[in-house]
C-alpha cells in the first residue's frame, strides 16, 4: 500500500474512474463521492459514481445526483464500469463487506483501489490510502485530497456544496467532538467557494414529509423505552410500524439521537425490522464505546459514539439479547 500522494502522477493523464461508497449512503457518503466526482471531472477523467444501494431523497439535490448509478438497479452496467476502471475510489468505508455484492466485483477488478475514509480498523484491500480516524467526515478528507493534489484553487460551487453537506451531516451540524478549528477553516473555505450553507441545511433537514414528523412523534410517544438503571434508551420498530407510517429510505435516520438527548442517558439504540434483517444503530455520549457493543454482539462496528450493526434474530429476540448484555456494561454506563 502506498501513501495517497503517490497517486498524483497517475492522475496527470485521463483515467477511467469509479467512485463508490457504503451501503445505504448517508450525507457524508454522497457528499464525499459527488465532491470527488466533480473534482475528477474537472481534471479531465471519465468518472462514474456507483452506490451499492439507494439513498434518501433529502440527498437527491446534490449536483451530479442525476448521474449516480445505483448498483442494485444496474448490476451489469456497474460491473462493466468497474471491470474496465483504472482506479476505484472507495469513500467513507474501509471494508469491502460493507458494500455487499459490489465488494466482490471491486475485489475481483484489476483497478487500483484508493481508500479515503475515517472509520477505525481499515481492512487493507486498498492500494492507496488517505485515512484518518480523527477526521470528522470522509468529505473533510476529500478536501484534504484536493489540497494534497495541489488543486485547492479548483474548488467550485459543485465541489464545495457536496463536501459541505457531507461535513455538516457527519458532524451533527458542527457539534460533535470531532469538529476542530481546522474543520471550521475548511468549512469557511467551502462557503467562500460557493457552498450556500443556509440553503444546504434546509435541503437536508427541513424537507421532511408530514408523515415522517408524525412517525417521529409515534416513535417518541409509543416506542421509546428508557432504562434509567442502565442510563440506556431503546426504540424498536416492527415491520408493521414501518408499513403503517410508510417509512422509506432515510425516514428513520436521526431518530436514535432523540433517545440519546435525554438527560442522564448515555447509550441509545434503535432496532428496526427491515426485510432482510434487524438493523441497529447505536449512539453514546462520552466514554461509552457504542462501537464495542456493535462489534461484539451485533456483527457491526463504527465510531466510538456512533455505530451500527445487525441481527438475524427476530425483533423481540434482538431486543432481549440487547437487554441481556446491559448488565455487563452497567459499571461503564453508570460511572
Ligand atoms: P448508522 O447508525 O448511522 O447507520 O451508522 C453509524 C456509524 O456506524 C456509521 O459510521 C457507519 O459507518 C457505522 N456502521 C453502521 N452499520 C454498520 C455495520 O453494519 N458494520 C460496521 N462495521 N459499521 C457500521
Ligand atoms: Mn462518514
From TrEMBL:
Gene3D superfamilies in UniProt: 3.10.310.30, inorganic pyrophosphatase (n-terminal core)
Single GO MF descriptor: nucleic acid binding
Domain DHHA1 stretches: 245-323
Domain named DDH: residues: 16-167
InterPro entries according to UniProt: DDH_dom, DHH_sf, DHHA1_dom, Oligoribo/pAp-PDE_c-di-AMP_PDE
PANTHER family per the UniProt record, alphabetical: BIFUNCTIONAL OLIGORIBONUCLEASE AND PAP PHOSPHATASE NRNA (PTHR47618)
Name the record gives this protein: Phosphoesterase RecJ domain-containing protein
Amino acid at each position: 500500500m502506498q501513501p495517497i500522494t503517490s497517486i498524483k502522477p497517475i492522475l496527470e493523464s485521463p483515467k477511467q474512474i469509479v467512485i463508490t461508497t457504503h451501503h445505504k449512503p448517508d450525507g457524508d457518503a454522497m457528499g464525499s463521492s459527488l465532491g470527488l466526482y466533480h473534482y475528477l471531472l474537472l481534471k479531465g477523467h471519465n468518472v462514474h459514481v456507483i452506490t451499492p444501494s439507494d439513498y434518501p431523497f433529502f440527498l437527491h439535490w446534490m449536483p451530479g445526483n442525476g448521474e449516480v448509478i445505483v448498483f442494485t438497479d444496474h448490476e451489469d452496467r456497474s460491473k462493466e464500469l468497474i471491470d474496465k476502471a483504472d482506479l476505484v475510489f472507495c469513500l467513507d468505508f474501509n471494508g469491502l463487506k460493507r458494500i455487499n455484492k459490489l465488494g466482490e466485483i471491486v475485489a475481483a477488478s484489476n483497478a487500483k483501489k484508493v481508500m479515503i475514509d475515517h472509520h477505525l480498523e481499515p481492512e487493507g484491500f486498498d492500494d492507496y490510502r488517505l485515512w484518518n480516524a480523527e477526521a470528522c467526515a470522509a468529505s473533510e478528507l476529500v478536501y484534504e485530497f484536493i489540497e494534497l493534489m495541489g488543486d485547492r484553487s479548483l474548488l467550485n460551487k459543485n465541489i464545495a456544496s457536496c463536501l459541505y453537506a457531507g461535513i455538516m451531516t457527519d458532524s451533527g451540524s458542527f457539534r460533535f467532538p470531532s469538529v476542530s478549528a481546522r474543520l471550521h477553516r475548511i468549512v469557511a473555505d467551502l462557503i467562500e467557494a460557493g457552498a450556500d450553507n443556509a440553503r444546504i441545511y434546509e435541503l437536508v433537514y427541513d424537507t421532511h414529509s408530514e408523515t415522517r414528523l408524525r412517525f417521529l412523534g409515534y416513535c417518541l410517544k409509543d416506542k421509546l423505552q428508557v432504562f434509567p438503571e442502565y442510563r440506556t434508551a431503546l426504540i424498536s420498530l416492527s415491520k408493521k410500524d414501518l408499513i403503517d407510517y410508510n417509512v422509506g429510505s432515510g425516514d428513520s435516520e436521526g431518530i436514535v439521537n432523540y433517545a440519546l438527548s435525554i438527560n442522564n442517558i448515555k447509550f441509545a439504540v434503535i432496532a428496526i425490522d427491515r426485510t432482510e434483517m434487524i438493523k441497529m444503530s447505536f449512539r453514546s455520549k462520552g466514554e461509552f464505546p457504542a462501537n464495542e457493543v456493535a462489534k461484539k454482539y451485533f456483527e457491526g462496528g463504527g465510531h466510538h459514539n456512533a455505530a451500527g450493526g445487525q441481527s438475524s434474530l427476530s425483533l423481540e429476540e434482538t431486543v432481549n439479547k440487547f437487554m441481556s448484555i446491559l448488565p455487563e456494561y452497567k459499571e461503564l454506563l453508570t460511572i
